[in-house]
Structure formats: structure tokens, C-alpha cells
């Protein structure tokens, strides 16, 4: 495993977002005003931890066969054949969103204990990401009861974990790992149970 500490940057995305008029999906302005940060700079935030996991492949396993993962949260491995529609879910199991990882997306996870400011910052960040040559920014945002940290961002074989949302650290993770997966597929998946919107 490779571990690195992300550093807190000094450039806030708030100025850019305000200039571009980026949408906030009806959330509070807390995430925007703080440059997508829900971290208290006086609380000793260490920048979070990025971990590389071994590639567990992408075998399709039809329901109802159970799927077990070696890591929590998983960053690769067996998954259901139908991937999820991109966007936010009230709850989406990993056997669905691991398939989205295989298609180059980023999965934003939060523990049930995450506060509203953190959730709003995650939503605002995902909404502010620009389209790419494959279409809109590919993300899934969902709760994850087994999360050992408050939040996590997951890409194929990579996980960033922290106890608060730091926009600069998350942006660096997304920039490095977005669309770095076996299948570069931007289309929406057919699975949308629990889908809230985008």
C-alpha cells in the first residue's frame, strides 16, 4: 500500500465558482463560501490520507449471488453487471458503484455521522466540476454506513479518506485519478434505485 498526505492548499475554489455562477443544487452556501471546505483550519486537519489498493479486477456477478470485498470501502473488485446512473443516491451499495469506478468515475462517500455542511460541500464540489470530452463529470454521491472515516472519495484502486471535506485535497485527488480506470465509459447506467438527482 502507498500512503501520502494531501496538503491543504491556499487557493479557494469559491472565487472561481462565484465568477462562473456554478449551481449549488439547492444546498446551503456553506461549501461555496468556504471554498468547498467543511474543515475547521484551527482543528489540526492533517490533509487526509490517500491509499492505493490492489486491483481486484471487475468480474460481473449477477444478483442474488453475494459479493464480499477485502477493503472498506472497496476501490475495485467484482460488481453487478448494471452500473448506476451518475449522481446522488440516498443509498447505493458498493456492488453497484464499484462498476461506476470501473468506468472512470469518482464515488463520494459519507458516513451517517457527517454533518450537513460536509454533505453540502461534497454536493457543491461535484456540481462545480466541468464537463469533459466524455460528457458531464462522472460521480456517485452516497452514504456508506461502514465508512471508517467521515468522508471518502474513491477512484479505481485509490481511496482518499478524511474526517472533514477539504476542497483542495479532494480536487487534487480527483484531478489525479478521474477516468484512470479499465473502461472509459461516460454513459449513465441502467440502475437508478434510490437516485436523487444530479
- Derived structural class: alpha+beta
Radius of gyration: 16 Å
Compute the number of strand runs: 8
Order of helices and strands: EHHEEHEHEEEHE
* DSSP helix fraction: 10-25%
| Gap between N and C termini | 33 Å
Overall pLDDT score = 84
Tell me the strand order in the biggest sheet.
1-2-7-6-4-5-3-8
Q: What fraction of the residues are assigned to beta strands by DSSP?
A: 15-25%
Word description of this protein:
The chain is globular, with a radius of gyration of 16 Å. Helix content is 22%, strand content 17%. The protein is of the alpha+beta class and 198 residues long. It has one domain (3-197). A hairpin with a 2-residue loop joins β6 (151-155) and β7. Strands 1-2-7-6-4-5-3-8 form an 8-stranded mixed β-sheet, with helices on both faces.
SSE topology sketch:
Blueprint: E1 3-5, H1 14-20, H2 30-33, E2 49-52, E3 87-89, H3 94-102, E4 106-110, H4 116-128, E5 139-143, E6 151-155, E7 158-162, H5 167-177, E8 195-197
Parallel strand pairs: 3-5, 4-5
Antiparallel strand pairs: 1-2, 2-7, 3-8, 4-6, 6-7
Question: What descriptive keywords fit this protein?
Answer:
globular, alpha+beta, 198 residues, 8-stranded mixed beta sheet, disordered N terminus, 5 helices
Short description:
The chain has 198 residues and is an alpha+beta fold.
Amino acid at each position: 500500500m502507498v500512503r501520502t498526505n494531501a496538503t491543504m492548499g491556499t487557493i479557494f475554489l469559491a472565487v472561481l465558482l462565484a465568477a462562473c455562477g456554478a449551481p449549488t443544487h439547492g444546498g446551503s452556501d456553506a461549501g461555496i463560501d468556504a471554498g468547498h471546505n467543511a474543515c475547521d483550519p484551527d482543528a489540526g486537519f492533517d490533509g487526509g490520507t490517500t491509499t492505493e489498493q490492489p486491483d481486484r479486477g471487475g468480474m460481473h456477478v449477477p444478483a442474488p449471488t453475494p459479493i464480499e470485498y477485502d477493503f472498506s470501502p472497496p476501490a475495485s473488485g467484482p460488481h453487478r453487471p448494471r452500473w448506476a446512473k451518475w449522481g446522488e443516491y440516498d443509498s447505493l451499495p458498493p456492488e453497484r458503484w464499484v462498476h461506476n469506478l470501473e468506468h472512470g468515475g469518482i464515488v463520494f462517500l459519507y458516513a451517517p455521522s457527517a454533518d450537513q455542511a460536509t454533505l453540502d460541500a461534497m454536493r457543491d464540489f461535484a456540481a462545480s466540476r466541468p464537463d469533459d470530452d466524455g460528457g458531464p463529470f462522472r460521480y456517485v454521491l452516497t452514504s456508506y454506513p461502514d465508512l471508517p472515516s467521515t468522508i471518502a472519495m474513491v477512484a479505481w484502486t485509490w481511496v482518499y479518506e478524511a474526517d472533514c471535506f477539504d476542497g483542495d485535497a479532494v480536487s487534487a485527488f480527483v484531478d489525479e485519478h478521474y477516468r484512470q480506470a479499465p473502461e472509459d465509459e461516460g454513459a449513465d447506467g441502467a440502475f437508478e434505485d434510490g437516485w436523487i438527482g444530479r
